[in-house]
Amino acid sequence: MSKDKLSTEPYKGVRDFYPEDQFLQDYIFEHMSRACELFGYEAYNASLLEPTDLYRSKTSDEIINEQSYTFTDRGKREVTLRPEMTPSLARMIAGKSREIPMPARWYSIGNFFRYERPQKGRVREFWQLNADIIGSSSIEADAEVIALAHNIMRSFGADERNFEIRVSDRRLLEAAYEAAGVAAEDRAVTTRLLDRRAKMEDFDTKLAAELGENRASALVSYLDRTTSTAYLEQLHTILKARGVGNMIVDTKITRGFDYYTGMVFEVFDASGQNARSLFGGGRYDNLLTLFGHDPIPAVGFGMGDVTMRDFLETHNLMPDYVPTSELMLCVVDESAMSHAQKLAQDLRREDVAVAVNLSAKKLGDQIRQADKMKIPYIIAVGEKERDSGQYTVKNLSTGHELTTTADRISEHLFSSLG
Amino acid sequence: MSKDKLSTEPYKGVRDFYPEDQFLQDYIFEHMSRACELFGYEAYNASLLEPTDLYRSKTSDEIINEQSYTFTDRGKREVTLRPEMTPSLARMIAGKSREIPMPARWYSIGNFFRYERPQKGRVREFWQLNADIIGSSSIEADAEVIALAHNIMRSFGADERNFEIRVSDRRLLEAAYEAAGVAAEDRAVTTRLLDRRAKMEDFDTKLAAELGENRASALVSYLDRTTSTAYLEQLHTILKARGVGNMIVDTKITRGFDYYTGMVFEVFDASGQNARSLFGGGRYDNLLTLFGHDPIPAVGFGMGDVTMRDFLETHNLMPDYVPTSELMLCVVDESAMSHAQKLAQDLRREDVAVAVNLSAKKLGDQIRQADKMKIPYIIAVGEKERDSGQYTVKNLSTGHELTTTADRISEHLFSSLG
After folding, report:
1. What residue numbers bound the domain in which B149 lies?
2. Number of domains within chain B
3. Is residue B271 part of a domain?
4. Distance separating alpha carbons of residues A401 and A393, to the nearest angstrom
């Protein structure tokens, strides 16, 4: 081995997805997509690379100044690997708002980057579903995005007892700021402190340092006293009618991003195994004004892959890996290769996923490979099969065999797999 | 409008995918995936961010020095947004080669970045399918990746007359270098010159400047004389037997990447509308040695979205846009909203994609929105429907109406849509 050989490690804090890992990613993404589509959401996407200015005013200072991947391109433009989707969505809507029928329902699944210390539930590249309703200020829209999130969780096999949807309202927070006399310029930083309240040991000290003892205690006491609002009760009733039974009002929920203006929610693992919220979202009615556009009301959420994997694992909801191939053709002798290839091609036309074993190893080794790859069926193809037109389909897990003609193979596989 | 409002433009050279654009992306990706799966390829992925060293020796100097997005992260690591997939694939295989049953078939669809001047067929962020067989040096593997590429093209509805698969062999090129006396250290740059030969006006001058008049003309005359090899003829025969009738031997094909060692191929639009190759690939048997690993033979190709869109457009193969929603429920009066939501939820359970119109506009406006969104069916839900349990399903393109009960709606839709 040469001394300057390259490392096989990926970049720090990101993940390689080997086939069994990617299988799980695709499982998660397909369930997310399918639920979104059943609710009428249209897929969209933007580039991973955005002008840095897009995030400067509204994402959150911490993310942009300390956690973003920002650099200057060869043309001296300052660019950022997107840390979240909402600013790109707002940019796209603002750019074509006249052509887009509203309210619009949009979703996307993409990757995002944050420069964080890698730890449980946090990586530097994560994947996230974003689903939003743009152009409706109705409480029905607030309820719908929560119901959609609930449907996705249920589609993974989660029970309502496994997770809890905690909902609050930024307007309640604004009222608390008014009542406690928190100045407008202190509110963003205070909101982010409140967002981390449950995770901080020195919350009271930090809050007092920020607002002064009096205002800090007035704020905390206002918030502790305010356990619900008429709006939140109405939302609860609507969700109940839609079959969402695990929404609770929790006025401690604030969310970190600066752009929220109304309902905010976070979903928690009820097992207590994953202390941080699994995901969340909320209403942001003013984001389009950044682009010089009239405000357009919007509400949505982002649901990441990392916490979702943890959740599925905690609740034994991980799917068993199933390989792409339903059938491997093991080639007994090279002289039968072209016949095996032709058979494979015919079966593919009947929608059977077929891998032809190209190893040129002994039959036993080829069958062991199929087994190691968890491929359910094999057919050994040699001169005998080529000359007789009779093929023996073997189920590797049961050992069951059936001998039949080429045109009956797919029928047998589908009846067995189904 | 404030003077410092943000631009709604994306970063230069990248694309926003509005729902109708994303529909086409998904159409392309689904056809690629499905063909790969029918051939038994397993999905994988790696991060977009890789250590820059991964590309230094083998990708191509031009790409790394002039066209890559390379920067230093907050921890002083030099990182690159991947310009191609093969180095990541080789890294992953080298990292777990003992655990991976070989030959392995892997595919991925992901995004890539190159800093290029945006022009037709070239953008700074593109998407690409990569499909590879790792661990087989057999000509059957070479034939298979070409057959897979051919199947994908056919699955888009392309005819064999619409495209041409031009194949050559790097070993032929090596023999030409030997014969013409081209020194080992001049070969990489010469190969890249040859790769651009058809696009360059001053090819002969540049080649002579690189190799000297004598060697340059010896090389060109050797290559012009060599029209095929036994290997290429055998490949042609195998592909013919597999139903690939549009492969031709073209010894002018070289490919730009340094890592190819055997068969190389490029696919061209036969219409002449798109002069550059649509995509290509080849065999690279030594790439794993970069990681201090024994060589593992491998062959594959990359197929990008940008040239594929151009190809589909040229040949009138673009699919018509179909929205996610099969049905929109138009809400006649707010008092019927919760009933409409319940109906929507019931239909989703029967696998119907349903959007509920939240606009609170007049019925006519709601129907116009459904029509503008190209949603095929609507049901107007008001107090009458709620009280009678009878719903009128209207087909917006034919005007045909059918009145039925809630439990018969999905059956009617599927029989009409099918």
Report:
1. 19-314
2. 2
3. yes
4. 6
B188 and B226, same structural domain? Answer: yes
Interface touch B5/A106, C-beta < 8 Å:
no
Among the candidates A292, A314, A336, a domain finishes at A314
Asked whether residue A389 falls in the same domain as residue A267, the answer is no
Q: Closest residue of A to B297, CA-based?
A: A359
Single out the residue in B314, B337, B359 at which a domain terminates.
B314
**Is any Cβ of chain A less than 8 angstroms from the Cβ of B9?**
yes
Same domain, B292 and B366: no
| A15 Cβ under 8 Å from any chain B Cβ | yes
> Which of B11, B103, B124 lies at the smallest CB-CB distance from A358?
B103
Give the C-alpha separation, B161 to B182, whole Å. Answer: 38
State the DSSP code for B321. Answer: P
Is the Cβ–Cβ distance between B299 and B282 less than 8 Å? Answer: yes
Spacing of C-alpha A316 from chain mean position: 18
B116 neighbors B12 (Cβ within 8 angstroms)? no
| Helix, coil or strand: residue A171 | helix
Contact A290 B5 (CB under 8 A): yes
Task: Give one DSSP letter per residue of A254-302, joined into a string.
Answer: --S-TT--SEEEEEEETTSSS-S-SEEEEE-SSGGGGGTPPP--EEEEE
**Are B359 and A323 in contact (CB < 8 Å)?**
no
Give me the DSSP letters along A11-68.
STT---B-HHHHHHHHHHHHHHHHHHHHTTPEE-B--SEEETHHHHTTT-HHIIIII-
Q: Are residues A307 and A340 in the same domain?
A: no
Q: Which residue of A has its CA nearest to B71?
A: A71
Q: Do B324 and A41 touch (CB under 8 A)?
A: yes
* Chain A partners within 8 Å of B352 (Cβ): 38
**ipTM of the prediction:** 0.94
- Please count the residue pairs, one from chain A and one from chain B, whose beta carbons lie less than 8 angstroms apart: 261
Tokens 């190809």, located at residue: B311
Q: How far is CA A94 from CA A74, A87, A97, A102, A302, in A?
A: 28, 10, 5, 12, 20
Same domain membership, residue A186 and residue A121 = yes
Q: Is A7 on the interface with B (CB under 8 A)?
A: yes
CB contact under 8 Å between B5 and A337, yes or no, is: no
Residue A352 located in a structural domain: yes
For residues A262 and A293, membership in a common domain is answered with: yes
Say which CATH number the domain at B36 has: 3.30.930.10
Cβ within 8 Å of B, A 140-199: 140-141, 144, 151
Residues of chain A found within 8 Å of residue B141, distances taken between Cβ atoms: 358
Rounded Cα distance, B73 and B71, in Å: 6
Q: Based on the domain organization, do B221 and B95 belong to the same domain?
A: yes
- Give A 37-56 residues with CB within 8 A of chain B: 37-51, 53-54
Closest by Cα among A127, A131, A129, A134 to A90: A134
Nearest-neighbour CA in chain B from A282: distance (Å): 17
Residue at A235 is within a domain: yes
CB B47 within 8 A of CB A125: yes
Tell me if A354 and B48 make a contact (CB, 8 A cut-off): no
Closest CA to B85 of B93, B77, B96: B93
> Could you list the pLDDT tens digit for every one of the 418 residues in chain B?
344 789 999 999 999 999 999 999 999 999 999 999 999 999 999 999 999 999 987 666 667 778 899 999 999 999 999 999 999 999 999 999 999 999 999 999 999 999 988 787 789 999 999 999 999 999 999 999 999 999 999 999 999 999 999 999 999 999 999 999 999 999 988 998 998 888 888 999 999 999 999 999 999 999 999 989 999 999 999 999 999 999 999 998 999 878 899 999 999 999 887 778 999 999 999 999 999 989 999 999 999 999 999 999 999 999 999 999 999 999 999 999 999 999 999 999 999 999 999 999 999 999 999 999 999 999 999 999 999 999 999 999 999 999 999 999 999 998 876 5
